[in-house]
């Protein structure tokens, strides 16, 4: 059985940092690089074209699509399949519970769902430190994430981590412990 990790949280909650700590902890963890159609930051994305997106949509290979910051971000079936090759465990970043639901329902795997959280003040501090030029949009996304959580009180998490008070390596170790103890391979 395939397995993956879904990291959910607002902008600057530490999804990239915790993912890096996971990859250092165990080589089987790999960052899932979402397909991005648009402009701006390219690091951490597979840049695509509107034509590629149309082809994926026509084949039913778009698992989840999110339009934000003037761009389109896609979790796609071929990308997930490739990320899971050789028993690897991809770490997928999402900022919407609808995306979490889409991935878990449309891509069968053992998914460990983790809520990473930080205060809005922390997002305001971290956003420019990481090079964002649109911190106001990131803060609006923080508000949207908080509203998203309130709209889905039934959301289930294997782990909740406050990244204001938990170091990335500690968060990674806690996630790894859950993956190993709940893994169908254990």
Automatic annotation (TrEMBL):
Kinase among keywords: yes
Protein name (record): Guanylate kinase
Keywords tagged on the record: Kinase, Transferase
The keyword Transferase belongs to this UniProt entry's keyword annotation: yes
InterPro entries: P-loop_NTPase (IPR027417)
GO molecular function: kinase activity
Superkingdom of origin: Bacteria
Gene3D superfamilies (UniProt xref): P-loop containing nucleotide triphosphate hydrolases
């Amino acid at each position: 059985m395939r397995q993956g990790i879904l990291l959910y949280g607002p902008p600057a909650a530490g999804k990239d940092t915790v993912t890096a700590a996971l990859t250092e902890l165990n080589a089987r963890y790999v960052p899932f690089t979402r397909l991005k159609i648009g402009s701006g930051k390219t690091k951490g994305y597979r840049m695509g074209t509107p034509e590629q997106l149309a082809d994926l949509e026509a084949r039913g290979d778009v698992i989840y699509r999110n339009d934000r910051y003037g761009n389109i971000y896609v979790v796609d079936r071929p990308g997930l399949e490739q990320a899971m090759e050789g028993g690897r465990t991809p770490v997928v970043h999402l900022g919407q519970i609808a995306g979490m639901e889409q991935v878990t329902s449309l891509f069968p795997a053992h998914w460990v769902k983790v809520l990473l959280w930080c205060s809005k003040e922390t997002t305001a501090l971290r956003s420019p430190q990481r090079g964002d030029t649109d911190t106001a949009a990131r803060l609006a996304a923080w508000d949207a994430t908080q509203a998203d959580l309130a709209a889905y009180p039934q959301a289930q998490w294997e782990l909740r981590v406050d990244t204001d008070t938990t170091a990335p390596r500690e968060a990674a170790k806690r996630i790894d412990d859950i993956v190993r103890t709940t893994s169908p391979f254990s």
